[in-house]
């Protein structure tokens, strides 16, 4: 059973940080509930994307617009008797770091060809705290439940779009998690299905811009509602031979419900700019991961993992120009005494994306990225 749990750590490192929907930073795994005894884990991950685009008609390029980002996580698990386990996790559920640097006059899109993303930048920051409880029945089935709090804030600067700027308030809101799991320790088999509810944020947004219709400067507070979407995650693993394990996950996220539409930015003339949402997605996203793990001796385990997310071919926003991906990752775990250290690396081929509508679309293609992760765990 201890090796099966090690494979879950390998999967977590090689799949993270996540990039589903372009802004997801955590896959919300519940695997820590199945660690043995009392356990604490600290995680770090880094993803360095290479993302750029160009206009179909003018050929103007965006330059590198997606800086690398890092994510941290902390998790603690403890048993409360033979049948009950609890866990507390801290992570970064969603995030964005966009920067169109330099003087490139890259167009915002065909619906607004005179506007540019020159000097545009956006940041979305979040912190999630999740409390989980697992109750195991004698039949090896378990029920999982918990609550999740997410604190989120964001800023946007678009100098080439009438000097538009947005600063949101910092809001904390709550959701819940429910799930069911089944285990067969003799063959290191486990299946866990969990549902995470959406978390809706009602921000106060400070919007400012030069109104092209009235030639006045707008500087006002507005209401902005955005939700971290609901999700359904299936995690599985089973032994297929001595010291060999297959594992993976299937995750659905309701990204079509995710939308950042500030009142003045998307509102019609003469008070608003009448532009498309800053970020929106037309389709939900299903992410697949499948891996093979191998235990070499009492100290070393390793795994290879592939990931896939369908390319939809629909339009995305310039602040999140990704559409599916394919990935491959390698990871290794070293265990000595009560300490477990897992490190991994992942290569991601980012799906080509189209931004805006009309014949003069802008495209992001041939992009990729490399992610690395490290997790250190300790058994008490």
Write structural notes for this entry:
This protein is mainly beta and 380 residues long. It has 2 helices and 24 strands. It has a 14-stranded antiparallel barrel. It is elongated and about 70 Å long.
Q: Which second-level CATH architecture applies?
A: Beta Barrel
Which structural class do you get from the secondary structure elements?
Answer: mainly beta
Question: Helix and strand string, N-terminal first?
Answer: HEEEEEEEEEEEEEEEHEEEEEEEEE
Strand content of the residues, in percent? over 45%
What is the helix content?
A: under 10%
**CATH third-level topology:** Porin
Largest sheet: 14 strands, antiparallel, barrel
- Quickly count the helices: 2
Span of the ends, CA to CA: 17 Å
Instruction: Average the pLDDT over all residues and give the rounded result.
Output: 86
What's the shape? elongated
Strand order of the largest sheet: 1-3-4-6-7-9-10-13-14-17-18-20-21-24
Number of domains: 1
Spell out the CATH superfamily: Outer membrane protein transport protein (OMPP1/FadL/TodX)
Radius of gyration: 22 Å
Top-tier CATH class:
Mainly Beta
Query: Which spans of ≥5 residues are poorly predicted at pLDDT below 50?
Result: 1-5
Give a count of the beta strands, DSSP E runs of length 2 or more. Answer: 24
Membrane topology: Multi-pass membrane protein
GO molecular function: long-chain fatty acid transporting porin activity
Family: Belongs to the OmpP1/FadL family.
Protein name: Outer membrane transporter, OMPP1/FadL/TodX family
């Amino acid at each position: 059973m201890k090796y099966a749990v090690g494979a879950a750590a390998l999967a977590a490192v090689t799949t993270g940080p996540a990039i589903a929907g372009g802004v997801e930073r955590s896959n919300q795994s519940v695997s820590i509930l199945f660690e043995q005894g009392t356990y604490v884990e600290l995680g770090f991950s880094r993803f360095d994307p290479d993302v750029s685009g160009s206009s179909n008609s003018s050929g103007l390029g965006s330059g590198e617009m997606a800086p690398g980002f890092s994510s941290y996580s902390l998790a603690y698990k403890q048993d409360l008797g033979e049948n009950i386990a609890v866990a507390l996790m801290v992570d970064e559920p969603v995030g964005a770091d966009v920067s169109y640097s330099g003087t490139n006059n890259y167009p915002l899109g065909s619906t607004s060809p005179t506007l540019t993303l020159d000097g545009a930048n956006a940041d979305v920051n979040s912190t999630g705290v999740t409390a989980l409880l697992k109750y195991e029945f004698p039949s090896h089935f378990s029920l999982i439940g918990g609550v999740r709090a997410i604190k989120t804030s964001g800023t946007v600067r678009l100098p080439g779009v009438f000097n538009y700027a947005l600063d949101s308030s910092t809001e904390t809101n709550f959701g819940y998690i429910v799930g069911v799991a089944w285990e067969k320790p003799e063959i290191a088999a486990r299946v866990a299905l969990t549902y995470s509810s959406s978390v809706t944020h009602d921000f106060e947004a400070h919007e400012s811009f030069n109104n092209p219709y009235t030639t006045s400067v707008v500087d006002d507070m507005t209401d902005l509602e955005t939700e971290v979407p609901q999700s359904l995650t299936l995690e599985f693993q089973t032994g297929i031979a001595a010291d060999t394990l297959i594992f993976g996950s299937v995750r659905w996220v309701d990204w079509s419900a995710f939308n950042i539409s500030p009142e003045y930015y998307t509102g019609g003339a003469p008070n608003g700019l009448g532009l498309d949402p800053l970020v929106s997605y037309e389709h939900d996203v299903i992410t697949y991961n499948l891996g093979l793990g191998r235990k070499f001796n009492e100290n070393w385990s390793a795994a290879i993992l592939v990931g896939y997310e369908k390319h939809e071919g629909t339009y995305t926003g310039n602040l999140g120009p990704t559409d599916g991906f394919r990935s491959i990752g390698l990871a290794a775990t070293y265990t000595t005494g009560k300490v477990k250290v897992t490190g991994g690396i992942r290569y991601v081929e980012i799906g080509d994306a189209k931004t805006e509508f009309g014949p003069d679309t802008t495209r992001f293609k041939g992009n990729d990225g490399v992610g690395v992760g490290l997790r250190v765990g300790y058994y008490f």
